[in-house]
Write a structure and sequence with these properties.
This protein has helices at 5-19, 26-33, 37-49, 65-87, 97-103, 109-118, and strands at residues 53-55, 61-63. By secondary structure, the chain is mainly alpha-helical. Helix 1 packs across helix 2 (26-33) and helix 4 (65-87) packs across helix 5. It is elongated.
């Protein structure tokens, strides 16, 4: 599934916000991603056209099955990378999020499998959230 990093960030943001038992709206993405409202509007339209999200104008945003699958894959990668950064590189758990956001786009599946093995096939990230969602 080929989708650029920016679109991946939006899909994952929608997932993370909805995981907090929150109805996701454009303003939530503006705040979470620190972008402008018109940027969110354009991206949501593109993601809807590509089949990753559904929404009504001025309504809540939800992931489609395709979007949810991608979001779960990205979230698992992100959480595994956070764990690697804290356990192996001894980084502070409160400081690894931004770096994991950058790295989640670049690690190959093979590298992630090896990382998971190295970490003993963990089930939780450093914040206590499930790695496989």
């Amino acid at each position: 599934m080929s989708i650029n990093e920016s679109r991946q960030d939006y899909v994952r943001a929608i997932f993370v916000l909805s995981e907090r038992n929150q109805e996701v709206r454009s303003k939530d993405l503006v705040s979470y991603l620190e972008v402008k409202k018109n940027t969110v509007s354009h991206m949501l339209s593109a993601l809807r056209d590509e089949g990753f999200v559904s929404f009504q104008n001025y309504g809540s945003i939800s992931l489609t099955k395709k979007g949810l699958l991608l979001a779960k894959q990205l979230t698992a990668k992100h959480r595994l990378i956070e764990l690697f950064l804290t356990k192996v590189l001894k980084r502070n758990p409160s400081e690894v999020h931004d770096e994991a956001c950058k790295l989640e786009h670049d690690f190959s599946e093979d590298s992630l499998k090896e990382m998971k093995k190295l970490l003993g096939n963990p089930s939780l990230d450093p914040h206590g959230k499930p790695i496989s969602v």
